[in-house]
Amino acid sequence: MVEFTLISYFLLIAICLLIVVFPDYRTRLLAAIGVVISNGYAPLSRHIQKQAASTHGYANSIINASKGSLRFLKNQPLLSGIALLMITAPALFALVIRGPTLFDFNDDSHIPDRRIAILLEGEQLAPPPSLPPDVFTTREVELIVPEAAFASRNWKQLDPIFTQRLLVAFKLMRERYGYEMALIEGYRSPERQAKLAALGSQVTQAGPYMSYHQFGLAADCAFFRDGKIVISEQDPWAMRGYELFGEIAEQVELTWGGRWKMRDLGHVELHRKGILGHPPPSAINESH
User: Fold this and answer.
1) Measured distance CA(1)–CA(7) in Å, rounded
2) With b meaning 16 or more CB within 10 Å and e meaning fewer, what string describes 33-47?
3) Which residues does 53 contact at the CB level (< 8 Å), separation at least 6?
4) For residue 187, how many other CB atoms are within 10 A of its CB?
5) Residue 245 — φ and ψ, nearest 5°?
6) What is the rounded CA–CA span in Å between residue 37 and residue 135?
7) Model's pTM, two decimal places?
8) Closest Cα to residue 184, out of 226, 228, 126?
9) CATH code, 114-287
10) What are the residue boundaries of the structural domains of the chain, listed by start?
11) pLDDT digit string (tens) for 222-280?
């Protein structure tokens, strides 16, 4: 709807400027309107043909129009500036209201895979059984997720819609490609977010309530193979898994961290407008 409005505005302004800048075109347009009012639409084509035949061809018309434009720009700088502003106003307005790009996905966006659509609309999938705590304390995991042993892997703390989409992604990774997925961290408290941010931008650039983890709308994931968490990007098998996971995550309308400038291959999140930077009501109530 916004695109249609902008295009209509642009065409209307272009026609108005054409009439104002080029008197010859204004005269022809008024003559054509007079023909329509007086005689109906039938003679209009003959009138246009007659007008075209009286010129020296389209090439001369274009040259004359270009010369007329240059003369107008030189003689009427104020009107030229106003005209330019009127033409560019819609684009400038769209840039102002757009805000920062967050790879946002609307709830009504199209899901191309019918199988995925059925899974999302079907019965709620159950979270997988919890993995042994010691698999999250290995050096490989700690290098990627500091203090992963203290990270929350409680599925009940996650948003229900996000949970369903993430579980569909886990299911498809297992059924299609044979990858068993593991939740490394889901909900993250603002205190833990602040602690991770203090470790440096190589860990996270988001402060408290600037991460979707604080709203149960983000998860850090990896792979479970032969009783171990495989999270390292140095493993070719894991790298292939991250690529496939990213494709499926985007198909279920999640944002994948692998697209970011600072890549976070195991991270996925579900965007909601207007929540970042604002503590949820439950957190405000708990503070009083």
Assistant:
1) 10
2) eebeeeeeeeeeeeb
3) none
4) 21
5) -60, -40
6) 84
7) 0.61
8) 228
9) 3.30.1380.10
10) 2-98, 114-287
11) 999 999 999 999 999 999 999 999 999 999 999 999 999 999 999 999 999 999 999 98
